[in-house]
Model the fold of this input.
Amino acid sequence: MIRVLVTGAGTGSSANLMRALRAMAPKPFVVGVNDDRFVLKLSLADRSYLGPEPANKDYVDALLAIIRRERINVVMATDDNAVKALSDARVRFPIELLLPRPETIELCQDKYALTVFLRRRNIPAPRTFEVKSLRSLEAIFSRFSRRGLLWCRARRGSRSLAAAPVATIEQARAWITQWRDLRGVKVSDFTLGEYLPGRHFIVQSVWHEGGLLRAQSIEVLSYFAAGNNPSGTFSLSCLAKTVAAPEALQVTLDAVRAIEQHPSGAFFVELKETADGVPAITEINAGRFPSGVTALLAVGKDNMIGAFASTCVGQPVRIAEPLGSALEYYMVRDIDAVPGVFSEAELSEGIFRLALPSRTN
Done:
């Protein structure tokens, strides 16, 4: 029997993973762990444990104790901090973690270093510069020949940390200064890069010993709190759909193979299109699944979450569509609501349109 330990139990990302796991047949036994006892009360796991946070020196010891007690054979991290903790201590775990190499995780958790790596290998990524000091802003802006927006963000972190479009040096200075003074983010932690105005794609893939198990392309259509921030975008989608996006898929596969000769584990790749419609990689989250669109990875003929879990226990599954389904499934999310997934045909089922009388002056 597959017995899975999921970190961050009680969060939305853990709930999405657990629902996807329970779509497997037979259903696995799911254990959750979190350091926040209040969030943990929302856990959907069969059994939940309160433990230390990932940065705590006792975190790995706590996970190992749970693994022994609950006979865990699969561990799934839900955030980059947990991924890093697992990766750094991987030799201590008695089970297959199915993680990318430590060097890969280190590279991908630094967005600037990743962008430099990709561009040196002619893999599409936005032209980006590190902000060494506030005085360097003028020189960075001068490197972009065309006037327009630049994308200012922190080089580490998730959920669009400190990310915003800026049009002038003054705007960039004010944005960076505000985050430095109010949140303690160092000036040197920021980057400035090309603003990519096109469509937003997520390509999730799972690999094992150099072989691609499955990939799925997803287009993000709208975002949470889009009207409450300067960019109008956010890392968490409220509407997304599965798509056939061959260019975005190929860029993703090229990038993963450039980073690892024999990839293993989960790779969550985000891309935005340039003004010319070329998908460019904005970030790669190595070692985990996306927190928001997990439900779209468990529909159709293949459950990618299930494929990951089965591979961890030495039970690889046959994947009917390794490059993803071309059928369109829509995922709709809202705060305090379970994500809903609908085929295009199901979108109008049970919905009635009112024929309102026309008004005349």
The chain has three domains: 3-97, 129-191, 200-348. The chain has a mean pLDDT of 92. The longest helix spans residues 169-183.
